[in-house]
């Protein structure tokens, strides 16, 4: 189905610039179609989407964020998927000077939500702290920060609560 939608060609000959524009639109269409289907709960497309993300690493932040959001919503266990992208995820933390900081922030926010849902409050707090550090570096206040801190407030993990408190004292 995806190949049919994204493989549609036009009649006639195109110059190189026109062909490049068409390829960019096909790429965006494929990315958006995968994201829509995953957000609608199509768990059977996860492997194909993950394969797409491996081929297009520039889409990983958005793609993984979409997958984590759907995982929490539909009760999917995606630890294996997150593990396959673990090296890239470390890079997200370092990329605080990049142009996709909002996407990276939302990645860490969704990762915290997923970790909390999986019953791993310490890992959730680490992701919250990454998101808060990034928000602080950007000089922004995100609405989700309040919700994110609420995750910790609901946690009975004293070490996690101390970690968040020390972040605000810095």
Which residues sit in consecutive blocks of at least 5 with pLDDT less than 50?
1-8
Oligomer: single chain
Give the ordered list of helices and strands.
HHHHHHHHHH
- Number-wise, the strands total 0
- What is the overall number of helices? 10
Rounded mean pLDDT score: 79
Helix content: over 70%
Rounded radius of gyration (Å): 18 Å
Helices and strands: which structural class? mainly alpha
What's the structural domain tally? 2
Shape field: globular
Tell me the strand percentage band. under 5%
State the major sheet: none
C-alpha end-to-end distance: 51 Å
List the helices and strands and how they pair.
Layout: H1 2-6, H2 16-39, H3 46-55, H4 60-74, H5 79-84, H6 86-94, H7 101-117, H8 121-138, H9 143-153, H10 158-169
